[in-house]
Inverse folding.
């Protein structure tokens, strides 16, 4: 596996740092200073873009992307556009995300240069209709899922961070009013798009995204928002946050622009550390009357289903990373005089990883392809999610098991994947395919 | 990318569903109880099926048709052909009764073997025979390379000697495709398959097995004693060389495994459907919710099983699609068989549990499906054999390295 220069430097420094000779020769201070500066120079974290969204008077009418025509035949081929996107993102994942993943996890930060490199690919453009500066011509949840898979193969936490603004652009395209689309979408197509995210999760056990404690009440001029969201990807860096809240007894989504009145607390978790999850508190936060996402065609359940699709894409991508890692490991690692892959107990675990990963993938693809062609897809999305919730973690835990003690230490990425894969079943926010 | 059943197969799916509902389901319990009695209702049905196949513009479907399609590796072109069609039909028919499905004349595994290995002359002569398949012996099951039945050249004939067991439809079929070795010292390469017609002197049906499930399907043990077959009945090439013969015969399974996976899907679908119906009548809310853990345990379980079944179905469709498009699919066929076999069995067993004593009783067919499904995780390669095949492909290991 390729490693970034800074990663290599750090690993060398780590080994030197543990060396008792350093103390004997009085070298420790010098080395630690070098390490400090070396890290700082190579690791610039993502900051808020500081975007302002101006109200405009001559807004365009509401745009809805048309569905694709349903093909005649069962087909597992990707089309030329999908293949091109997959190819370029898999390069990004391999060359940039994977080499930086361990350090980003350790630092609990999204490296700014990677965010910028990904921004150059213009992911939000694929979410945004042409009228607002994007390139999207039809609904394309299949492509969204493929994007999530490829990025998560590199690193799930960074993928989540990269996909959060993309998801917001998707959601505004899918649900926004003409005014909301005209106000926010063009910004996503600029050279420096806003950082944005979706906040749904709340700190309660058995959290059901349809039963929200965060509440909005109508005022004469707009809405007042109260409640707490946690596990919010890039919550502190976001210029724009879509917040799920109950309004008149029904779950809805509000567009909330960055404000100092929002209480932000770090909420580091088991994994997804590079996504810098935070907890957000709204205390009588005043929102304008056009902050309610969408109008007559808004469907909260389908909004959630779009999140499930992308979550499943992330699960498949990281699960594939596990499989791709354990195969060469088990072929190279020897015990009792031969590679451990020669033992059925090991080999069968690997077969089962492959079976369950393809199971997750095909269910997700089917749900996405139904969504894309305008067919009922709530059942399919629910089935994909329930399977991914279960199997993603099975892949994660068996990935560590196959490496034995080596899987438990940070020298190998499987322990990180284990932590990240746990989040598939716990979070609903941050994603919209 | 599109993962729905193509519209052009709606007629066959519909027809097969009608057969399941109107022909198989009503006699399902009868032939489960009357093990070894020949389900004569099938004769009429078989001729209807023959008619359907012969008249089909795209070459029909079924065991005798699969594997001959597929233009080799045609890039990104897309074909939905006989393999997908057969799988779809089989799912529906086994929703009716898998034991009966295994007893449909001219749809035997032997027919798939003939279709896969026979030359043109043999295909012409034997293509319409109902052929069973005899591989397993008392001392060799999964290890089919270890069979002891011999075929000895004698003039223009071969003399077959040995004992075969677990031959599905072995007594009812018109012929049996028998695996035998030309020379035990030469290993797997010397294993060939021979078509032995019913009534050939020296071939004796020793007994019919009494079984846990698929009791409508007879399972025979057959002894061969100096059983003489013409040399023209050796399928494929008589040459003993690596890469030919055994390997070729094993390739039959790449095409038949998705079909057996489809059988498992059909049985599991029947059980899941029935269970949902029973529980729905009792007022259970079966709606799909994003947070499934706040629903009743049984709802969550049913949806999880449904997801597992759907995954197995898509893996099976993929394997069949690859065959239709000429892509090598050995790994994917085994993935489909492994997943469908175990998931089908788990679903049918859980459905019995969820319906309590009602599920366990012969009043419903749930207990029968739970017995029938077990064999589908065993024949055409056990769960463990599938995992072995998949692992060797993934890890790049030979059968000598990964035993």
């Amino acid at each position: 596996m390729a490693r970034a220069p800074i990663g290599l430097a750090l690993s060398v420094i780590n080994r030197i740092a543990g060396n008792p000779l350093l103390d004997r020769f009085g070298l420790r201070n010098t080395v630690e200073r070098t390490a400090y500066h070396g890290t700082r120079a190579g690791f610039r974290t993502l900051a808020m873009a500081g975007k302002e969204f101006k109200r405009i008077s001559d807004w365009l009418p509401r745009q809805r992307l048309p569905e694709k025509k349903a093909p005649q035949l069962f087909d597992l081929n990707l089309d030329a556009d999908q293949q091109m996107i997959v190819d370029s993102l898999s390069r990004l994942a391999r060359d940039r995300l994977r080499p930086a993943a361990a350090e980003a996890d350790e630092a609990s930060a999204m490296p700014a240069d990677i965010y910028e490199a990904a921004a150059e690919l213009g992911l939000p453009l694929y979410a945004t209709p042409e009228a607002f500066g994007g390139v999207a011509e039809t609904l394309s949840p299949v492509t969204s899922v493929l994007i999530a898979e490829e990025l998560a193969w590199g690193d799930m936490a960074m993928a989540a961070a990269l996909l959060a603004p993309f998801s917001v652009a998707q959601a505004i395209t899918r649900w926004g009013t003409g005014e909301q689309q005209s106000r926010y979408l063009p910004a996503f197509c600029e050279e420096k798009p806003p950082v944005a995210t979706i906040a749904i999760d709340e700190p309660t056990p058995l959290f059901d995204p349809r039963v929200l404690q965060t509440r909005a009440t109508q005022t004469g001029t707009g809405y007042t928002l109260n409640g707490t969201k946690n596990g919010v990807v890039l919550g502190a860096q976001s210029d724009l946050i879509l917040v799920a809240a109950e309004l008149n007894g029904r779950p809805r989504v509000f567009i909330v622009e960055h404000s100092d009145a929002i209480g932000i607390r770090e909420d580091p978790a088991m994994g997804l550390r590079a996504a810098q999850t935070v907890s957000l508190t709204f205390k009588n936060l005043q929102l304008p009357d056009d902050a309610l996402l969408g109008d007559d065609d808004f469907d909260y359940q389908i909004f959630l289903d779009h999140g499930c699709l992308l979550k499943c894409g992330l699960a498949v991508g990281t699960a594939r990373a596990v499989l791709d890692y354990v195969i060469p490991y088990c072929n190279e690692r020897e015990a009792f005089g031969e590679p451990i892959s020669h033992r059925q107990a090991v080999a069968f675990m690997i077969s089962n990883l492959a079976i369950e990963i393809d199971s997750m993938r095909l269910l997700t693809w089917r749900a996405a392809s139904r969504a894309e062609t305008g067919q009922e897809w709530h059942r399919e999305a629910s089935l994909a999610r329930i399977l991914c919730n279960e199997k993603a973690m099975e892949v994660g835990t068996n990935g560590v098991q196959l490496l034995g003690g080596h899987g438990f230490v940070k020298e190998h990425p499987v322990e990180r994947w284990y932590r990240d894969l746990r989040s598939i079943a716990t979070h609903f926010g941050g994603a919209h395919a | 990318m599109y993962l729905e059943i193509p519209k052009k197969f709606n007629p066959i799916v519909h027809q097969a569903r009608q057969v399941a509902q109107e022909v198989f389901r009503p006699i399902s319990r009868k032939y489960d109880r009357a093990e070894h009695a020949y389900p004569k209702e099938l004769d009429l049905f078989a001729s209807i099926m023959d008619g359907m196949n012969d008249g089909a513009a795209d070459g029909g479907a079924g065991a005798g048709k699969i594997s001959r399609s597929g233009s080799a590796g045609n890039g990104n072109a897309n074909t939905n052909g006989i393999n997908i069609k057969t799988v779809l039909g089989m799912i529906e028919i086994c929703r009716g009764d898998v034991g009966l499905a295994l007893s449909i004349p001219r749809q035997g595994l032997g027919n798939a073997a003939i279709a896969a290995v026979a030359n043109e002359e043999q295909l012409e002569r034997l293509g319409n025979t109902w052929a069973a398949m005899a591989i397993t012996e008392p001392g060799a099951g999964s290890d089919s390379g270890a069979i002891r039945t011999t075929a000895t050249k004698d003039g223009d004939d071969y003399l077959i000697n040995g004992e075969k067991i677990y031959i599905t439809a072995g007594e009812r079929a018109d012929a049996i495709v028998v695996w035998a070795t030309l020379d035990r010292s030469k290993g797997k390469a010397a294993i060939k398959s021979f078509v032995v017609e019913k009534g050939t002197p020296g071939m004796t049906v020793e007994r019919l097995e009494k079984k846990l499930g698929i009791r409508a399907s007879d399972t025979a043990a057959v002894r061969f004693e100096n059983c003489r077959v013409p040399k023209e009945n050796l399928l494929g090439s008589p040459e003993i060389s690596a890469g030919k013969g055994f390997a070729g015969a094993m390739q039959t399974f790449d095409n038949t495994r998705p079909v057996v996976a489809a059988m498992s899907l059909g049985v599991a679908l029947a059980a899941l459907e029935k269970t949902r119906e029973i529980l729905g009548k009792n007022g259970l809310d079966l709606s799909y919710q994003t947070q499934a853990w706040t629903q009743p345990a049984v709802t969550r379980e049913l949806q999880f099983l449904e997801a597992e079944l759907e995954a197995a179905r898509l893996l099976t469709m993929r394997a069949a699609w690859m065959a239709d498009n000429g892509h090598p699919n050995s790994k994917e066929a085994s993935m489909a068989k492994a997943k469908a076999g175990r998931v089908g069995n788990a679903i049918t067993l859980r459905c019995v549990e969820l319906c309590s004593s009602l599920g366990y009783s012969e009043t419903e067919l749930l207990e029968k499906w739970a017995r029938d499904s077990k064999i589908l995780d065993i024949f055409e390669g056990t769960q463990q054999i599938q995992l072995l095949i998949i692992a060797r492909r993934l890890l790049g290991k030979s059968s000598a390295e990964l035993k």
Observations:
- Chain A has three domains: 5-43+75-194, 199-288, 300-425.
- Residues 300-332 of chain A form the longest helix (33 residues).
- Confidence is low (pLDDT under 50) at residues 1-41 of chain A.
- Chain A has 14 helices and nine strands.
